[in-house]
Amino acid sequence: MKILVLNGPNLNLLGTREPDKYGTQTLADIENFIKNEASKINVEIDFYQSNIEGELVNKIQEAKGNFDGIILNPAAYTHTSVAIRDALLAVNIPTVEIHLSNIHTREDFRKVSLTAPACIGQITGFGTNSYKLGLIAITDYLLKN
Ligand code: CA2
């Protein structure tokens, strides 16, 4: 099973600023963590981050035929991106949206996700463990569907 882990804008800054909101782990730490979890269950991970909306759209389009599922933290594009939502709907690859923070306890604009309706579900608020929970959710879904 092959899973694409896609990360949106500013997540490359993780561990350097705002540790109260997003924790102290870097994105490289999260990549190692999720790849280690995936290796235990024989899942192959491709891990990618971009600050550019179109590059995330390209990655989603290229995932068709190459990945069984997607774990997506669209970061700020969660709340704005019709383009990412449309790409997810176009490729129709099962996707779990994840967030480090609980977007429903933050500012009102973060409570709305344009991308979640194109996903099979959303995991939000568990810090780095949101990635692990996303992996459990997507692999379990793919085994049953
Ligand atoms: O909680 C999440 O995972 C978010 O997707 C993170 C996004 C935010 O816009 C979403 O509402 C929720 C922000 C990622 C920015 O990460 C930073 C890391 C360090 C310093 C500054 C930003």
Features:
globular, binds ligand CA2, five-stranded parallel sheet, alpha/beta, 145 residues
Folded structure, characterized:
The protein has six helices and five strands; from the N terminus they run βααβαβαβαβα. The protein is 40% helix and 18% strand. It is globular, with a radius of gyration of 14 Å. It is α/β, with parallel strands linked by helices. α3 (53-62) packs parallel to α4. The protein has a five-stranded parallel sheet, with helices on both faces. α4 links the parallel β3 and β4 (95-99). The protein has helices at 19-22, 27-40, 53-62, 82-91, 108-111, 129-144, and strands spanning 2-7, 44-49, 69-73, 95-99, 121-124. The structure holds ligand CA2. Residues 10-11, 13-14, 17-18, 22, 73, 75-76, 78, 99-101, 103, 110 line the site of ligand CA2.
Which percent range fits the helix content? 40-55%
- What's the number of helices? 6
Rg (CA only): 14 Å
Strand-residue proportion: 15-25%
Q: What is the number of beta strands?
A: 5
Helix/strand layout:
Elements: E1 2-7, H1 19-22, H2 27-40, E2 44-49, H3 53-62, E3 69-73, H4 82-91, E4 95-99, H5 108-111, E5 121-124, H6 129-144
Parallel strand pairs: 1-2, 1-3, 3-4, 4-5
Helix pairs in contact: 3-4
The structure holds ligand CA2.
The site of ligand CA2 has 16 residues, from loops.
